[in-house]
Amino acid sequence: MSLPPGFLDELRTRTSIAQVVGRKVIWDMRKSNQAKGDMWAPCPFHQEKSASFHVDDRKGYYYCFGCHAKGDALSFVRETENVGFMEAVEILAREAGIPMPARDPKAAERADRRTELAAVMEEALKFFRLQLSTQGGAAARDYLARRRLGPDALARFEIGFAPPGWQNLHDALRAKGISDELILAAGLAKQGQTGKPPYDVFRNRIMFPIRDPRGRCIAFGGRAMDPDDPAKYLNSPETELFDKGRTLYNHGPAREACGKGAQLIVAEGYMDVIALAEAGFGGAVAPLGTAVTEDQLHLLWRIHDEPLVALDGDAAGQKAALRVVDLSLPLLVAGKSLRIAMMPPGLDPDDLIKAQGRDAMQKVLDSARPMVDLLWARETEGRVFDSPERRAALDKTLRAALQRITDLSIRAHYGEEIKRLRWELFGTGRGGPRKEAGPNPASPRGRGVRFGSGPGGRNWGPVLPLPVTKSSLLAAGQGEDLAEHLREAMALGICVAHPALIPEFESQLDTVPLADPAHDRLRHAMLRHAHEPPETIPERLLADARDDLEKLMNQPHLRSAPPVLKRDDVELARMCLAEEFAKLAAARAMRAEIEDAMEDLEGLADEGVTWRLSQAATARHRAERSKLDDNNDMGEDRAALSAQLQAMIDAEIWRKK
Length: 657
Description:
By secondary structure, the chain is α+β, with helices and mostly antiparallel strands. Helix content is 51%, strand content 8%. The chain is built from 29 helices and 16 strands. Helix 28 (607-624) runs antiparallel to helix 29 (632-650).
């Protein structure tokens, strides 16, 4: 349903986010200023005791300085109630007394049609539930009792029975005045041959109703009672209500459970979901087929950031898990992933819970592995890599898998993990530990003995550095690492000197990678207090990170830097801070691009890689152009850097020699 222009703006205007949030939190009235709509509370999204969750009722936004959750009233309702966008809009509109906009006639007609079909499905469900309690359902009840499904579970999951016979359901629905056209459209019957009436789709089967997230019965799944039936499980055909690839069994109850903190578990079938839910794992769902689809993956990620896929422990279950991994690789984004919980061989969740109890199932879930482990295991388990050719083939296969990950940051982290696993397997290779060459005790140098003397008794051997020299930043750093460390310090120093700039550069401050742990701690302290009055921030930083702050501001290059010294020149500080963040981003992007290109290459490079390196160099040069100093020396430095990078490209340093 599309909303008319201005509707959401009116909804936000007429909604008090403080009232919406106030239903879920307890305000810290010592820190809050109710008259100004400036409210603080412990965050509802992560466990904490301090009040780091801030709500600005005038602006209509919230932000947590601990877990960095942020948004407006709509996003808060979506996250806390675990509902979709339109459902959140309806909830807020109802509370604000705003009528939802009228739908267009065609959309209303389609909705009325789906409402009719859903009513037919409910009548069919009543019929199946009734049949399970009759004498004809005795065998089905015995089967369910053997599967340890008691009356409570049968009622909770509304399990029924479709009796044998060709027209039992059809005739029952016709007796209620439901037309053949609606029965056929709901997928409950199929049209018979010419001149013959429709016949039931489900016959002699235990019936599991499938409901959508809104709770409407949209389809059925039936398990055959006849062991010779070629289709052990049968789902409703796709209809105007039911799209198998976009539906999850137990979607609504699982979403509600996950909204209260439960883990989302993806099992293989109806009985697994029921067994998990009965054992206390309320966030269990199942795809309605042999494989998870892309649409179902997105549904799972809307419910939980990291679902656990718990498939059967047989060969088919392992293949299904790997299919899920392959499907999800191109779809991965930061914070959205899967973990794979492999069941013991020959057991599914239902079997394991019945045989060994809930604790055994919890143990399997706790041992769930990240997807990269399965990716690695598929290519290495049971194989021997005793030749360079076999190792090269492994590298090629893994490289192809990593190239399918579209998110560059995630691809880089996968690559690092693959390097680590490769080192554990082979003991050699890039990315593995390297033994540092220590001093040779047999040599005069190794023993620290001076050697050789020049005229006049001058000693031409190595001179030991003074302690103050060894502890200096210049001695500790090397090359680009030192330059980036100094830039990190400069950016943080400007923020300390001009705290009013911290909210303006909050995004860059939040996302920039900081190598120094002290810098990282100081950055997080700044983010926690970013939206407080600027004059109070220095005092807050001293309270949170005094040692790190003093260490930072005692660095000589900071004490003499103009943007730090000139506290009244905010524009100069703003320009310098933007420049430092840009240089950090450009330098690290270029290094990552070169490393990625060299890692990807095997043999000769193609023009595409040369272009990538050229573009990275261009970005680096653009960031290096200082707005503050255009003198000849800086121009010469940039020319030298440009020549150095171009020489690297011309020499094709990425070729494997």
